[in-house]
Amino acid sequence: MPLEYSEKYANGYQFPAEQAAAIIRTTSYHRKDFDLAVISFPDFEHQGVHTSISTSFPRSSSTSTSAGIFDQLPQELLNDIFLSLDINSLIKCRQVSLPLRQAIDSLPEYQAVSTHGINALCALLRTRLAYNVSLSEFYEALCTWKCSVCYQFAGFISLPAWRRCCFNCLDQGSAELQMLDVNRVYNSFNIREAETRKLTSFVTLPGTYTTTHSVENEGLTIASTGQISRTYHERYALQRTGRLGFPDDRTLAYMATCALPYYDRQNGTADYGMSCAAA
Question: Which among 17, 34, 36, 113 is least surrounded, fewest beta carbons within 10 Å?
């Protein structure tokens, strides 16, 4: 648990570190059901890809050690380039040569992302939103614990907006996290296809969502309600009503979100969030 967040609720009590850890283990637990209410993947699926995305293949004596023109760049500049690459480009860059793979794997930021953020990493790749998030942005989100809406501890992230959120804000339907079916918007307002391409949209993944276990098998193209509203704010219908007029479908927000632990860069540990066992 982040120190700042822990101190806020400490109420003046102080315990030795080992006692505090024991108390937390006894009185709290992680809500796995919350993780399964959003985009999630079975653990065995991660086992097959974790090694390939976080470690370099063994090098034989005959393997080339050249990284091409990258060999001519200072290491600091090379690291800056890797950090600024979007996740999709970074993964492709690792596939170019063994030296590039080793250079990327040596970055502490990449190791943290590929180890503790593998669920979100897979979600970005499968939804094809990986082009929208850089390694630096991913790492900063991983190292951020506050919800972007209520500023409490946040164990989740909205993929299209790439902003931290807590389960409470997601479950209560906070406006900042809501999504819309792009096809419904397209049909209702006769929107030109060129306009829809400006949206950060994606096709949802089949799965079970929300705490009521809603099974969603159909892939829907969805985008942020806020982005759609801003994009079409000048259209006559929106000027008159001030809103899109669609009923809320909160399930779509779950289909655009996945769990992401908080990574403490100082001690190198990941916090997945805890709930009171007595609640």
Answer: 17
